[in-house]
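Hi R.,

As promised on Friday, here is the backbone we talked about, encoded as structure tokens. Could you run it through your design pipeline when you get a chance and send me back a sequence?
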């Protein structure tokens, strides 16, 4: 049974050669550049060859909410036909130098229609993303700050997400203050669960972390407590 993911990578690696064989452009983004201009709907699909990008929703009051991270072998944004108003508030920024194959909607529409395996993979990807959003809305929202932090660290670690995410970004994902984040990390450090250095977090005892997570977060065979 799958658990939520914040860091998406490798989802479409099986289609690498297929993507190369279809009409596309190549794009390079420096750290801090946006994959498309803020304030515009999704017009192009990017298959990420290398690097990592961060997807955020920017609120009109100036605050932001980090939604997800996207690394090599995945596609973002994923193909759909309609433009949605919320897209105007979504930004996707390169966290490191990023190389992509870029596809137009028309080009990806043709691929979607001709390749049933790709179409099925897109449906599965959307299911994973919806699972993350439902987890955030229906579960993580009601947890205390320490439990939220444990859940997030546990889910980010397997995909290598903790290597790319700073402590400031952890606070933005959780919607908490740096003070609360620092307090939670200090508790986990004192218990030998994590190490922190240069703004990053490293898990030193994953089993102990799992025991501090909620049951909706851990793998079915993990020992955890609410």
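Update: got your reply. Pasting your designed sequence below so it's all in one thread:
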């Amino acid at each position: 049974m799958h658990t939520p993911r914040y860091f998406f990578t490798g989802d479409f690696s099986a289609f690498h050669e297929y993507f190369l064989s279809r009409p596309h452009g190549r794009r390079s983004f420096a750290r801090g550049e946006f994959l498309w201009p803020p304030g515009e709907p999704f017009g192009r699909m990017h298959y990420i060859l290398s690097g990592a990008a961060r997807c955020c929703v920017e609120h009109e009051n100036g605050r932001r909410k980090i939604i997800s991270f996207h690394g090599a072998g995945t596609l973002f944004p994923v193909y759909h036909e309609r433009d949605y108003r919320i897209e105007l508030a979504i930004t996707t920024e390169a966290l490191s130098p990023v190389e992509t194959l870029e596809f137009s909607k028309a080009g990806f529409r043709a691929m979607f229609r001709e390749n049933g395996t790709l179409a099925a993979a897109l449906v599965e990807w959307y299911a994973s993303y919806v699972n993350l959003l439902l987890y955030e809305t229906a579960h993580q929202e009601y947890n205390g700050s320490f439990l939220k932090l444990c859940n997030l660290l546990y889910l980010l670690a397997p995909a290598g997400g903790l290597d790319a995410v700073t402590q400031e970004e952890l606070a933005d994902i959780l919607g908490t203050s740096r003070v609360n984040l620092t307090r939670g990390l200090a508790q986990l450090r004192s218990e030998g669960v994590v190490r922190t250095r240069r703004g990053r977090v490293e898990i030193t005892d994953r089993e102990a972390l799992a025991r501090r997570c909620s049951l909706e977060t851990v793998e079915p065979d993990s020992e955890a407590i609410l």
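One thing I noticed while checking it: The longest helix spans residues 116-138.

Thanks again,
M.
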